[in-house]
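Give me the fold.
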Amino acid sequence: MFDGISLDKLKEECGVIGIYHQKNIDVSKMVYYGLYALQHRGQESAGIATNDGIRTHQHKAMGRVAEIFTDEIFRKLVGNVGIGHVRYSTTGESYVGNAQPLTVFYRRGSIAVAHNGNLINADLIRNKLEDDGVVFQTTIDTEVIVNLIARYSGDGIENAIKRTMGLVKGSYALVVMTENQLIGVRDPLGLRPLCLGKLEDGYVLASESCALDILGAEFVRDIEPGEIVTINQNGVSSKKVNGVSKRASCIFEYVYFARPDSIIDGVSVYEARKNAGKLLGKEHPVDADLVIAVPDTSIPAAIGYAQVSGIPSEEGLIKNRYVGRTFIQPDQSSREMAVRLKLNPLKSVVTGKRIILIDDSIVRGTTSKKIVTNLKEAGATEVHMRVSSPPVAHSCYYGIDTPNRKSLIASSQSVEDICREIGADSLGYLSTDRLVESTGLGNEHFCLACFNGDYPIDVEKSKCSRSFNRLKT
């Protein structure tokens, strides 16, 4: 998350926000505060683009939101429409040219796009566009989207977006800005989240509802899978793409990615995590003295586990929230020191205790092993690890930075083997059925591919798709 040290977690690609204000006021600072609320979704780069009805104004840079924007920059970001983006790269290299929003100028004006997700057929479409003479300025798949929208804009922006959605395959939540309107788009499977909020004199689109709370906006609803929402001086209108037959929202939003104070698809992230902890306590009870969480995302699950087990919960790992990204070093000794700097056991709490350690996921297993070792060195007599999600055994292709499958510890090792590898006295994972149950929704609502390998979009088939033959001007 945005804590600096890159612990053994999956990484979300980015967060997006868009604001349309009916009155002629500059919205750049509102976009800034919204991005601040979404900083956990990406800390690599950030950007804001605004439009004053005549031209687009933009600023983006590497780093975190608070490091990038100043009063001098805000004075240049004029306009009553604005979009913003925070990024963690999963496709495309890490440099400022790949930062978003991405703006293109064409014969009808300008289009700015901020994108959360990942297109699995981007290379195929990009190659075809390049064959047709299109010159690309970045290495990110968002540029494919914005080029397609500009290509088809003769029929109007909404129809251009609809045609683009018929070509691209993968995950995307988009905020699109023109001279006089803001548009939100969610992919037909609903893989990436997007919601709508109401201001006194305008509207907000955001990856998570926590951004609406910061801005004092009233939560209206989630954008539906396959929906195009247009906001302009006439208010809000909506269109759905044809052929939306199922949905597959990413369940890891509830496990780890989203802030606990967000509501996604009608479900409180905090309550889902606490429910997962309760169900984990029923599935994998153990006789112990204390429940502690790996902070911060695992805290609700630890609360739930403690409630159902009757075992008290305390803060046993102290998190250093001031370790910056510049500390991260590639060598092994530095990575080990980073874990100690990041999470330090509270000896007065853990000494002589049998500990139940709650975490939301295990990816490579390297950090879990270090934490277990550190707890035992601090005096814990036993460490029983409990994980509030199933084993992550398959790579994600839809906008999550998953390691190569061979680096996923659960792809090649049994639970017993993982337990020995991380040095725990016992290990228990929440089952897939119980994880789904924790949300109050059904299996048909979610993408569970990282657990079971059942991908909602066939990656290889999409890469070989002949849809690019429909790229007509």
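Residues 1-6, 325-330 have pLDDT under 50 and may be disordered.
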